[in-house]
Each structure stands twice: as C-alpha cells, then as structure tokens.
Amino acid sequence: RKVTVEVLDRLEHLALVDFRDAEGVERLQKAIQFADQLHEVNTDGVEPMDSVLEDRCLYLREDDVTEGNCTNELLKNAREKVEEYFVAPPGNIPLPKLEERETFLQGS
Amino acid sequence: ALKGGSPFQVSAALKEGRVTPTELCQKCLSLIKSTKFLNAYITVAEETALKQAEESEKRYGRGQPLGVLDGIPVAVKDNFNAAGIETTCASKMLKGYISPYNATVVQKLLDQGAVLLGKTNLDEFAMGSGSTDGIFGPVRNPWSYSRQYKEKSVPKSHSQEDEESNWVITGGSSGGSAAAVSSFTCFAALGSDTGGSTRNPAAHCGVVGLKPTYGLISRHGLIPLVNSMDVPGILTRCVDDAAVVLGTLAGHDPKDSTTIQDNFKPFDLPNLTDVSKLSIGIPKEYHAPGLSSEILSLWSKAADLFKNAGAKVIEVSLPHTRYSIVCYHVLCTAEVASNMARFDGLEYGHRSDMNKSTESMYAATRREGFNDVVRGRILSGNYFLLKQNYENYFIKAQKVRRLIANDFVKVFGSGVDILLTPTTLSDAVPYMEFIKEDNRTRSAQDDILTQAANMAGLPAINVPTGLSERGLPVGLQFIGQSFQEKQLLTVAKWFEKQVKFPMIQLEVKRHDHGAFQHQKSASFS
C-alpha cells in the first residue's frame, strides 16, 4: 500500500518540512512498513500508556509569577525584531498549492 | 600526572592541595586541544572554565569546598542549555543560539563548583546511534588511537592513511560526552538517553553510562526529543563517580512537572561483598539476532561470575522485547513531530530569508535547518498522528508500550532484583562501515538492547566489561527497578570490581612533542 500524493502533500503542509526527493518518500514508506509490525501484537483489553509515571500525581506549581523581566535576554536570539516584538512575515496566507509550490512532489 | 587506581583520588588531591583547580582545568583544556581530532567538543568554554576554576581555588584556599565536585572539570552534551554558551544540538537550526539559561542539571553541577569545560558533540538533535550525523561531523572513538586497538587491528604497515580510515565510531547519540570522559579530558559528562543514547556510546568507549529512572532527574533545559522517555544521562569512568554525580542531580524540580516529588537522599555506595541474597535475571530475548559471539560469551561469563559468587541467576522472559523497537519508532517519531514544531525561526535559531508569508518562512527555515534524519522523523511522526492513523499506530504503540512495561513488572515481581544483558550487539564498528547503512536502520539495530528500559522508564547502566578481539571495549548492562538506583549501582560496582576493565592506553601524537602516552587517574570521586 503506497502513500498517495495527497497524503504526502498533506504531510508537507502539516509538518512544514519537505520530502526533498524520492529517497525522502521512500523513507516514509519504509517507516510505515516497519511500524506495521505492531499489528502482530494482540492488545485486546490493553489500555494505552501515556506515561510511566501514570500511577503518581504530578506536581503543578502555583500560578504565581516567580521569574521574568528578561525581555532583552530573550530577544537576543531572534533575528528579526522591532522594539520588544518578534517580527513575522504576513500571516493568513496559505502555503502555495502543490502545483505552485517548490516541492519534489510536483513531479509525482 | 595523577596515577590511576582507587576512587576519591582527584577530589582528595584538590583538598590536600596536591593539585589546584586551575592546574586541573588547564591540563584538561590542553588535552582537549591535543585530542581535537576526536571532534568530541563542539564548544570549549575556555574563559569561563578558567574563571570557575579560579573561584574553586579560592574556596579550597579558605578550606570551604562546596563538595566532592568542587573544581572537577565536566562536559555537557550540546542539547542541554548552558547560559551564555552556544547550544546547537549539532544542527543548523540552532547554530548561533546562545542559551539564556542553564538547564537544571547544568545549574546543579555549577552550584557544586564543577568546572564546565564545554559542550560535546552528538547526532543532530540526539537522533542517531553513532554520533556521526551532526553538522560538526562525526565523533571519533578514542579507543581508535589506543595501543590496545592498534596492536590488534591496524595492519603491520601502520601508515597514516590506515589510521585515518580505520577509526571507529563512539556510538551515540552522546558520543562526544563518552569520548570526552574516555579520553580523560573531563571527569564526568552529561549525556541524554531516550533509546540508549548514553549507554550505547558508554559501551563503545569503555566508560560507565547511567540512565536514571524516568522522573528522577529534571529535564528542564534539556532540549526534548521524546518527552515521555528522555532522561539526562551520566557518563563517568567508574561507578562510584556516577553515584556522586547522581547525588548532585537527582531530586524534584518545580520546573519539571515530570520529576517525582519523593525526597531523594544522595547515597554512598556500599562495598558489597556478599551477593548470595541477590537474584539476577537473564532475559532470553536479549540474545538478539546479530549479537556477536564475543559479547554472548562475555555475557555468559558474567552470569557465571554472579553464580559462582553465590547469587541466584535465572533465565527470565520479556516476551514483548522484539516489538520494543517498532513501538519506540512510532512513539518517538510522534513525539518528535510535536517537539520539533517549536523550531520556526521566529524567536531563536536559524531563520530563512524567505519572507513571503509566515508559513512559507517556517517551511523554508525548517527545510534549511534540519537534516534528513530529523525531517524524516518529523514526517513519519506526522503520518502516524494523522486522524486516519492515530488509533492504528499511535494508540496501538501506546498499548504495546504498556505490554513491554508489564513484562518488566512481572519479572521483577517474581523476585528478580536486577537484570543482566548485553548493551550493544558488537564492539564499535569503523566509521567507513557504519555509514554504509542509513541512520534509521542503524538506530533500529543498535537500540534493540537498550531502549526497552526507556519504554518502561527503568534505570539502567553500562559497565565496561572487557576488550573485544579487536581491542575495543565491550560493556554489559544492568537494568534495575524503578527508583532503585542504589541497588543497581551497588551491584554494578561489585561487578566493576570483579572484571577490572583495563585503562585505555591512549597514544596521542602531538605535533610539537612527538608521540606520548597518557596514564591518568581513573576517577575523581
């Protein structure tokens, strides 16, 4: 069962990384094939395990501000900034469709 | 040079003034320079290290050292944040990122007066089992340059080219940390362990690699790979040192809600002499396909060692072992897909010049910043998390995870105290051979013996056991019960004493002084 171009395209959209080349797509195919071995295991009546610490009560801090005031520190690592803002390119513009995008999948 | 032997050497030497923290620091920095070809370090923090050493010296001068770790040079894997130092995760995505804070474990080391020499090399974002897939290049196993390896492996012609192409990998992904400890450039190093990334390179580099119980040590500041499995790992030259470092790092951290709240009491390891009350389990499924006959034999000898000393040694079964790699593959890629989503170029790290739209900037940034391995895992993870696949892959894997964890519960519940297994399938392979297979295949092969412990959150430790026919280190692994590190380390220490693993005879050619050998102290504590 091969993954369809639609799904590959969807994945590129969701992940915002690209398959790059045929090898990338093949890598996914192999990964799925590998993962399919899971279906050999009988898991009837077995609950999914989220965490090995599921039997314990995890600790939540009080919602009090204990640190901060480090705007300058944090902005230091950003490439584009204006005053105390991170600057992003315009939003609400969807990623170009498959036909218009620079992606390996175009040829498929 | 400080002679090897019993623990409590260097720390005692510092206390007695036989060596000063600055001398120690300078020696290590100098050794880092002369072993640069190992490529173990990404960043050497020379200035700050010397400052820390000076501060330590003042404290010793006043007779007020902070503890055993005061003045001890350490190194930290480059996926831990260390304030003011570049933290790259060996990826273009974080090149130039200067950490604004210390990871909790880094802070704890510094609070004890440890001297942070630098950040060590790894596979990009800790994804890999060779420490070969980072942007700074592969790490070389110091044993490649040992007399032991050269005598057994290098052809008699012994030319420069032969040495160049014969070097072996460190294993990974904490290869830089393992190499740093193994080559005496530091006395302890931090790694991380998600599928075996601390124990695997520890085995290949002949050092002790401890994976603590999940929830014992804070992950705050450790750039996450798999939140439900990651733990900081400890690499040292002997088990006692690992216990000391563990004592410094363990305990609840309000900044990491996955650390347990129980009070952790640092412990000294007793010198176990009577193992007759011990029950050692030998899981038969760990006789995995591809296990070298050498390691099988060493494992068997180790079991006999315990038996002859009076311990109960029994074969046990962990039936779901063979599915742990598949399970890990799905859960790991799923969590990675989520964790890597934070890298978008806006707040830190690499940012693409593309600025047509936010999404296209994100896409271009990630396209430019991540290597094939990382991208591959993100895409696979997203696939398994698609609505149509969620139940069949992600939830399914979570169910299998419970079965794997239950296998251990059953075995420990039946009276077994500790499990004894191999750590790796073979000794370290030459780099040229290792790169013939792709990262995922290699990881799947190499993680098979280590990652079930991550699935179940159990503590596990690699203890260097002997040398292979090629003169390279081979280690064995002990897996313990949750939060029973004291028992685990006590048994490991006893075993370490029995096997007397040989010290590496590192032959480092110095350009100015010709070849010389290092015989350094085995431990610091």
TrEMBL record, chain A:
It holds the Pfam family GatC. Transmembrane segments: none annotated. GO terms for cellular component: glutamyl-tRNA(Gln) amidotransferase complex; mitochondrion. One of its GO terms (molecular function) is transferase activity. The keyword Transferase applies. It comes from the Eukaryota. SUPFAM superfamilies: Glu-tRNAGln amidotransferase C subunit (SSF141000). GO terms for biological process: glutaminyl-tRNAGln biosynthesis via transamidation; mitochondrial translation; regulation of translational fidelity. Keywords: Transferase. NCBIfam families: gatC. This is GATC amidotransferase. It comes from Calonectris borealis (Cory's shearwater). The gene is Gatc.
TrEMBL record, chain B:
InterPro entries: Amidase, Amidase_dom, AS_sf, GatA. Keywords: ATP-binding, Ligase, Mitochondrion, Nucleotide-binding, Protein biosynthesis, Transferase. The keyword Metal-binding does not apply. Residues 27-147, 169-489 form the Amidase domain. GO terms for biological process: glutaminyl-tRNAGln biosynthesis via transamidation; mitochondrial translation. It holds the Pfam family Amidase. The keyword Lipid biosynthesis does not apply. GO terms for molecular function: ATP binding; glutaminyl-tRNA synthase (glutamine-hydrolyzing) activity; transferase activity. Gene3D superfamilies: Amidase signature (AS) domain. Signal peptide: none annotated. GO terms for cellular component: glutamyl-tRNA(Gln) amidotransferase complex; mitochondrion. This is GATA amidotransferase.
